[in-house]
Fold:
Amino acid sequence: MRVPEWSFDTKPYCFYLNRLFYLCLFAILGFNMETFKREPLLRELKNYLIHLKDLGYTEIPCEADLFANAEIAPQQSHSSTPSNEMAKNKSLIAVQEELGDCTRCKLSKGRKNIVFGSGNPNADLVFVGEGPGADEDEQGFPFVGRAGKKLTEIIEKGMGLNREKDTYICNIVKCRPPGNRDPEADEIAACKPFLIQQLKAIKPKVIVALGKPAASTLLGRNVPITKERGTWHEYEGIKLMLTYHPAYLIRFPTLENRKAVHEDIKKVLKELKK
Structure:
């Protein structure tokens, strides 16, 4: 059979199907392994399926379908009038593909996984943190460690929202800084263009900057977070709320700090309802 002329819409599928195929293969072969060796494979497969869902995929076509579609209509997309939702999803996918296996700064040398972002690509609410930690680097998803559990608690218990369906979460840098230090200026400069493109693709109503590095990056100046948290700003015409990073609440779990974040998210909820 001849090599088909791939249409634009089939290329992203092929990119993701290749990795999905090998993850499934390793997971199947892994059933002969001891449990402690098999579980990481299954966890990575589960996380990758969630990742595809976050990017907007609702189904995984078989290879035969892809070839058939390519041969029958090589110049046609799957829909002649794509919805705004699909257009935005493709834009976010394009940003991730442009990022690729990034080596634009020194953080790439010590990372295990690039942590691009997760959640609803059409969300009205985006949380921006500073960078991945050890758990995020291991799994390839943002805010899955202790700070992530605290953020989920804020979103679901404090705001009454669903983290996966109602929000999108990302960081100003996509690779873990050594020892969980704050990202350095050159690292932020290398990664910021992709953060900007993510926000343009999602077009949220509200952005919440979690902590000083995120707030300073989005506002382009040094932000004293203890003085400015709870205040509204604008980023490219989008409402921007500054608040404490969840990790700060874990390190300093005072009633005053918890109340401060509670007041901040109440302001965010009020803005989302407008």
Notes: The chain has two domains: 10-72, 104-272. The two ends are 56 Å apart (CA to CA).
